[in-house]
Amino acid sequence: MREIDKVIDKSEKILWEGKPKFWPFFLGRSVGATFFGGVWLLFLLFFFVTAAVSNPNALTILLLTPHFWIGILIAIGVPIYTFLVYNHTYYAITDKRIILQKGVIGRDFEYIDFDQVTNAEVVINFWDKIVGKTSGSILVSSAGTPTYVRRGQEFAKPYTISNIDNPYDVFKFFKKVSHDV
């Protein structure tokens, strides 16, 4: 559900808006987790088969272990969550800023004012190349880019306009608008 109109100013105009392409967005976020969950469950299956030889109640024991349910949650929960996030993901470039809409239950909006943009780049990942054909992502860094610390080093997590169609054209448009502003 697109709700960007609720957060733009009265004098602000939307110049471009888009939504990610489904398959690159979905596969890029869920394949790794589904694979890991499947491996997790296969690992448990080995122990289940071993236990079933000596204990006929092994299935009941398996279904009561949290390890089994964690594997199910990882293998099935992540793709369901990704599908729900996709339905509420929209992007807009206005004459003042970039707006990113996300969220499952509530709507989360991220804004990057053009005067705060420090860097932008286009990234074409594996799934964009394989199933998206013409899709890619634009990474935007700004003075307010969120950072996190890992092993004592600070890393910036840029704002991402993910898996959009024709990312090079949108990037050129974004650069033109940001320079004009």
What structural class is derived from the secondary structure elements? alpha+beta
Mean pLDDT: 90
Span between termini: 29 Å
Low-confidence parts: none
Individual helix count: 5
Percentage of residues in strands: 25-35%
Side by side, the strands of the main sheet go 1-2-3-4
Rg computed from alpha carbons, rounded to a whole number of angstroms:
21 Å
- Backbone shape: elongated
DSSP E strands, number: 9
Percent helix, as a range, is 40-55%
Please outline the major beta sheet.
Answer: 4 strands, antiparallel
* Secondary-structure element string: EHHHEEEEHEEEEH
Q: How would you describe what is shown here?
A:
By secondary structure, the chain is an alpha+beta fold. Helices cover 45% and strands 29% of the residues. The strands form three sheets. The chain has a four-stranded antiparallel beta sheet, covered by helices on one side. A three-stranded antiparallel beta sheet has the order 5-6-9. Strands 7-8 form a two-stranded antiparallel sheet.
